[in-house]
């Protein structure tokens, strides 16, 4: 979880993650973890800036051949 998602939006300062969205995200992650556990896997959840957390995980794991990620779209819509 990136703490920057709890800050205001770029344009208007509205919260990016309000209480309802946060609850949905937490429930979704919990459900995903439980589903993976039933299949013999697990889910690593961390809080921090992804650029720091991913680097630390790679260092901790030692042998990582690939990392996949997505970037948040920061486009301003013009009507």
From TrEMBL:
Keywords: Chromophore. Gene3D superfamilies: HUPs. One of its GO terms (biological process) is photoreactive repair. Residues 1-79 form the Photolyase/cryptochrome alpha/beta domain. PROSITE patterns: PHR_CRY_ALPHA_BETA. GO terms for molecular function: damaged DNA binding; deoxyribodipyrimidine photo-lyase activity; FAD binding. It comes from the Eukaryota. The keyword Transit peptide does not apply. This is CRYD protein. It comes from Sclerurus mexicanus (tawny-throated leaftosser).
